[in-house]
Amino acid sequence: MKAVATIHDDDFLYEQIAARFERQVKEGLLKPGDKLLSVRALSREQGISISTAYKAYVELENMGIIEARPKSGYYVKFSPSRFSKSPAVKPPLTSTGQTTIAEMIATVYQHMPEESVLKLSRASPAMELIPLAKLNKSMIEAIRKSPSGNSNYEHLQGNISLRNQIAKNAFNWGGNITGDDVVTTQGCMEALVFCLRAVTKPGDTIAIESPTYFGIFNVMLSLDLKVLEIPVSPEIGLDIDYLEQAMDKVDVKACLFVTNFSNPVGSCLPDERKKQLVTLLTQKQVPLIEDDIYGEIYFGKTRPHTCKSFDREGWVMLCSSVSKSLAPGYRVGWCIPGRFKEQILNVKMMHTISSATPTQAAIAHFFEAGRYDLHMRNLRRALYTQCLRYMQGIAAHFPPDAKVSRPQGGYALWIELDKSINAFELYKAAMQHNISIAPGQIFSTDGRFTNFIRISFGMPYDDLVDKSFMVLGGLIKALQFCAEI
Amino acid sequence: MKAVATIHDDDFLYEQIAARFERQVKEGLLKPGDKLLSVRALSREQGISISTAYKAYVELENMGIIEARPKSGYYVKFSPSRFSKSPAVKPPLTSTGQTTIAEMIATVYQHMPEESVLKLSRASPAMELIPLAKLNKSMIEAIRKSPSGNSNYEHLQGNISLRNQIAKNAFNWGGNITGDDVVTTQGCMEALVFCLRAVTKPGDTIAIESPTYFGIFNVMLSLDLKVLEIPVSPEIGLDIDYLEQAMDKVDVKACLFVTNFSNPVGSCLPDERKKQLVTLLTQKQVPLIEDDIYGEIYFGKTRPHTCKSFDREGWVMLCSSVSKSLAPGYRVGWCIPGRFKEQILNVKMMHTISSATPTQAAIAHFFEAGRYDLHMRNLRRALYTQCLRYMQGIAAHFPPDAKVSRPQGGYALWIELDKSINAFELYKAAMQHNISIAPGQIFSTDGRFTNFIRISFGMPYDDLVDKSFMVLGGLIKALQFCAEI
């Protein structure tokens, strides 16, 4: 006769039972489509509590091995990719309750370079969208052009040809600048870090969007900055009135906003509201760090303006890079720091001496050879198509109550699922199928977007993506079902 | 009749007079070797004070136009490079008294990439010493080898081939590590910043050497860290007893030392003392950030050990790069962070996402192709020869009381001049001849090394360097003479 399980034994028990089922499926004793015992029957059969039986099934669902069909019961699932990978490289199945947001981010992004994982969590262009042959040609020509093969230290402010090209392109967003206004950096992330270091000190409060790219509040934490989260909606973008009222109460030392196609929401602040924001911050003499990394990825007729284009007194520090448009791995970014140029140069000198010479020279050459404009036209067209296809795929495979953002640019769909869904659990279950999505929790400091996920449409919508959507839809339905019973 | 000049007019007057002489020299009215009026005679002739007359001559000396010959008077100097450049690109002649150390550093290094300046201030290999053809070949082959042309994000920890090669090379300094112990960075400077960010918080005190590379205390200031300067002598290196005593009084959170061929002094901590240092810090559980950037540039028979090689408990974080050995502009560096690996990866993720892919791949290829060992043998031989030639040149042209360090590796000579010499004034005077030296002031937080200069022997000793030494020697003698009268 079995003793009543203690909580500890209980944990052990449900895992044991789940493992046993897993083995049976693996060995073909249970086949896709087989119906399992009901929770109650399993409880009776094994002499375990109903709660332990439930937990065993939920675990199996999270692992993608079984599925719950509403008002019918549990079935062994069909999943072609199920056993294609050894479990050793999977993220550990820890409880969400004990997982900090930093740990979630690390979990989500540590598997990024693995070839076998379908990266729906990565907001950057797929290999197919990068003009690789031309980029390589630019690298090789830049080496040949330079008497030093680009092996020497670059100027602290950055490659002059690249800076001039960035200034030339600024025309598209309404900018009237010269190459001397630009400082190059190692990607947009370093530009943001330099801006923050230039205008803040530890303990300062910075206003950011909510939800926002986790990298942004991560760097805030790392620089000992406090964050004030300003709501952003898919429709109207940043809530400037909320910001203004908050600034009366809190001493905000700087703002850091993604004004065009904010990540993950995808909203674009209209020109009038950009002007309003710049006027407000200029009047209060508060620097605006404008992350414009998605600005070039617009689906409309014209490139949206930036706040920088309305900046008369130099309070806007625009940051961007080629990571979303051309070559993430080149780590070529820049900053147009307005009145804070000297501070930025100081921080850059102290932290890195100079940015890498060959990569800057290659991107400068790519621009100068006139390869950028054509590439961007192609890229935008491809991404817009992919965006629409992804939305269709979600409509076809996700539960009908899933709400999807309608981005006008950028790389990401922001999806609200049923309130019962824990997105990090969904992430873990999806990873069992080698599908990586970005759980909503990592887009705020307090993990509040528990039932949201971000899906990036950087990859062409092919069969693999379609199947993944089927799997994801199934997992969401299963999780939803579990929560209901 | 002239009125007695006020202080303001006086400033104006000596500049006017100096400018008149300059014009006369330029127009050939005064020729090299011509003797000028004595200070007293000039004062009488122009109806100006003796002090104004002195100032005019000192200004002309600083500009390198005239020279003072002891017990003889002032003469027009011969200097072939005198008028080869327009003055617009020269650093402004501000008074040292009002120049902060940060400003001095900025002044010294802002002209670095200019082709026309002879860079005796740059501690890195001259173009002639870089195996450019092979390096370019490695870059091109690395692009061809990669299906993504190295355009994609690299793994957070860094290129795996590169990390394995770094681990393999570690054998030479007594290291027993694998590629998994290595994290790549954007040059050694970023590695140091990551280490500091990983183990300190603002307000902490860090022990550093004195004198030390200005970049090190610069980054301390930028991270709001306090520094405790530990003396280092050319003979015995770091004063570990001083450190131990200081640590009893001050709460030192970390140490940052250049253990091999410290910059600028060039000393190398003997193995026994390295062991002693590691034992001390391990016992006190204080991390040692070991900057080993010059370790490969040894003139003796074997590569010196590192503190890391005596580190049993992971308290040593070794930082290095290829900037001094292969390609400064590639910005490829690394860190071997011992027990702090997770913290370093966190900081790296928050600040840069990943290091540039193409440059890491190219350096990895260079190593793998077996090109590194041969190159380093050649480089070391060339640098040792240059070091000796530079010392000869200094002996030939500098005043006999100049004391020169005898480095056993690295790139720099540390030269003590007569106490009356202000090295930053010497720097400014030398820049008039397009010669850039590093003034001693920038190697401590309080500018205490006022009569020291650092001269780097990265460039082959050719006629141009020889002539520059002649010019420098003349300037030093002139400054010394001025101080005496």
UniProtKB/TrEMBL annotation, chains A, B:
Domain of life where this protein originates: Bacteria
Name assigned to this protein: PLP-dependent aminotransferase family protein
Domain HTH gntR-type: 11-79
InterPro entries named in the record: Aminotransferase_I/II_large (IPR004839), HTH_trans_reg/aminotransferase (IPR051446), PyrdxlP-dep_Trfase (IPR015424), PyrdxlP-dep_Trfase_major (IPR015421), PyrdxlP-dep_Trfase_small (IPR015422), Tscrpt_reg_HTH_GntR (IPR000524), WH-like_DNA-bd_sf (IPR036388), WH_DNA-bd_sf (IPR036390)
Regions that span the bilayer: none
Family in the record: In the C-terminal section; belongs to the class-I pyridoxal-phosphate-dependent aminotransferase family.
Key words, A-Z: Aminotransferase, DNA-binding, Pyridoxal phosphate, Transcription, Transcription regulation, Transferase
Coiled coil: none
A molecular-function term among this protein's GO annotations: DNA binding
Lineage of the species this protein comes from: Bacteria, Pseudomonadati, Bacteroidota, Sphingobacteriia, Sphingobacteriales
Organism: Mucilaginibacter psychrotolerans
